[in-house]
Amino acid sequence: MTFTFRPVDPLKDARLLHTWVTHPKAAFWMMRDARPVDVERAYMEIAADEHHDALLGLAEDGTPAFLMERYDPAHRELAGLYEARPGDVGMHFLVPATDTPVHGFTRSVITAVMFHLFEDPSVRRIVVEPDVRNTAVHALNAAVGFVAEREIDKPEKRALLSFCTREQFEKAVAA
Predict the structure, then answer these.
(1) 42, 67 contact by CB (below 8 A)
(2) How far apart are the C-alpha atoms of 6 and 153, rounded to whole Å?
(3) Which of 58, 83, 114, 122 has the most crowded Cβ, counting Cβ within 10 A?
(4) Residues 6+ apart with CB under 8 A from 41
(5) What is d(CA 146, CA 150) in angstroms, rounded to the nearest whole number?
(6) Are 43 and 32 in contact (CB under 8 A)?
């Protein structure tokens, strides 16, 4: 599967994103009780933040297929929780719930996200911090080369701090 990326437009995309982030299957996104205006506000804040970006992944026909966020972990999400290195970039992704799942779709998404992030030559390592209970995403992360380092306490969750270098990713996708 081939995907393209475009920045989230908070005003145009908030209603769609609201349906994604409030679905019960998106519980780890921690926006289940958000109203459309809350989602719009959250993505307006991200759009204005020099250390955080939100992108929509688009299917070949241009239909929004998933959400991706990238952030500077030295300034957002993980600031002070680990020793950030030059070239670190943080990442979140969300595949919306569907009544017609496609086998391998989510793995295609995370692979596309990783390729997209590593297209930037300054990115040396991708950092993630999913909820420790989110075993499905831990398996996906491992499949694309992430190595769990340790559990950390964030204000909103207990997280599994994991890293993936360019070399680890290339080795995982070549296998």
Answers:
(1) no
(2) 32
(3) 114
(4) none
(5) 12
(6) no
CA angle 151–156–83, rounded 5-degree value:
45
Q: CA 9, CA 67: separation in Å to the nearest integer?
A: 12
Which runs of E-coded beta strand occur in 42-122?
52-58, 64-71, 88-94
* Each residue's pLDDT tens digit, 17-53: 999 999 988 888 888 899 999 999 999 999 999 999 9
pLDDT tens for each residue of 57-78: 999 999 999 999 999 999 988 9
26 vs 92: CA distance, rounded Å? 12
Show the beta-strand stretches assigned E in the chain: 4-7, 52-58, 64-71, 88-94, 125-128, 147-154, 157-165
Q: Which residue type does 142 have?
A: A
Residue for token digits 């609201």? 18
